[in-house]
């Protein structure tokens, strides 16, 4: 079994915000592979299905971004999985709008959801797909920026990035992550 987690914040107020790209990507995977993400367990919305004959669990933690690790650690513990079977999808301020960067491990890079997962798992060694959201204008707070919706002019770029992130996650279910990285880290966005 492999676990694909999308980070975000629950509730309508956050649905279209920059910080919810992980949730949007899980929704895209759910639609493409007909895996409804509707079960409420592990303090998350989850859906179980198959992609490329691999058993997959899609997870949208409902703990709010800063506590994502609580939910993720419960999932891995329940299924007796290791961080090697985990892929986390999230927004990234340090990447240009719409650019993807796949990594096998690394620091939190300022993302509190990733920081929480690292704290709860006790390791930085889990796979990630980062989706670039760019940086706020000088003087604008990071918190306000990530909790705002994308302006209309950015939405097409973001939809394409979410589509590519969903495809990369699906590819990982049947392909070594190093190959997925080689393909998707070279795609410009």
Properties at a glance:
alpha/beta; 22% strand; 6 helices; 189 residues; globular; Rossmann fold; seven-stranded mixed beta sheet
Mean pLDDT metric? 94
CATH-assigned fold name: Rossmann fold
User: Spans of 5+ residues with little confidence (pLDDT < 50)?
Assistant: none
Main CATH class: Alpha Beta
**Number of structural units classed as domains:** 1
Class from helix and strand fractions: alpha/beta
Strand sequence of the main sheet, in spatial order?
A: 2-3-4-1-5-7-6
Q: What is the 3D form? A: globular
Number of strands: 7
Alpha-carbon distance between the two ends: 30 Å
What order do the SSEs take from the amino end to the carboxyl end, as H and E? EHEEEHEEHEHHH
The oligomeric state of the chains shown is single chain
- In terms of DSSP E residues, the strand content is 15-25%
Query: Could you give me the name of the CATH homologous superfamily?
Result: Peptidyl-tRNA hydrolase
Measured on Cα atoms, how large is the radius of gyration?
A: 15 Å
The proportion of residues forming helix, as a percent range, comes to 25-40%
Biggest pleated sheet: 7 strands, mixed
Number of helices: 6
Which CATH architecture would you pick? 3-Layer(aba) Sandwich
Structural commentary:
- It is built from 6 helices and 7 strands.
- With 189 residues, it is an alpha/beta fold.
- It has a single domain (2-184), classed as 3-Layer(aba) Sandwich (Rossmann fold), CATH 3.40.50.1470.
- α5 (155-172) runs antiparallel to α6 (177-184).
- It is globular, with a radius of gyration of 15 Å.
- The model has no long low-confidence stretch (mean pLDDT 94).
């Amino acid at each position: 079994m492999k676990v694909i987690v999308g980070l975000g914040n629950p509730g309508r107020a956050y649905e279209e915000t920059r910080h919810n790209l992980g949730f949007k990507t899980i929704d895209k995977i759910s639609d493409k592979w007909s895996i409804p993400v509707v079960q409420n367990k592990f303090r998350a919305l989850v859906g179980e299905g198959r992609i490329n004959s691999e058993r997959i669990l899609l997870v949208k933690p409902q703990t709010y971004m800063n506590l994502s690790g609580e939910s993720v650690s419960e999932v891995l513990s329940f299924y007796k999985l290791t961080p090697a079977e985990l892929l986390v999808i999230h927004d990234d301020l340090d990447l240009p709008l719409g650019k993807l960067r796949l990594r096998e491990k690394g620091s939190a890079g300022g993302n509190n959801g990733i920081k929480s997962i690292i704290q709860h798992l006790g390791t930085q060694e889990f796979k990630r797909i980062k989706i670039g959201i760019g940086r706020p204008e000088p003087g604008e707070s990071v918190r306000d920026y990530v909790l705002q919706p994308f302006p209309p002019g950015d939405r097409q770029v973001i939809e394409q990035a979410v589509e590519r992130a969903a495809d990369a996650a699906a590819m990982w279910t049947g392909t070594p992550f190093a190959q997925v990285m080689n393909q998707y880290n070279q795609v410009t966005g």
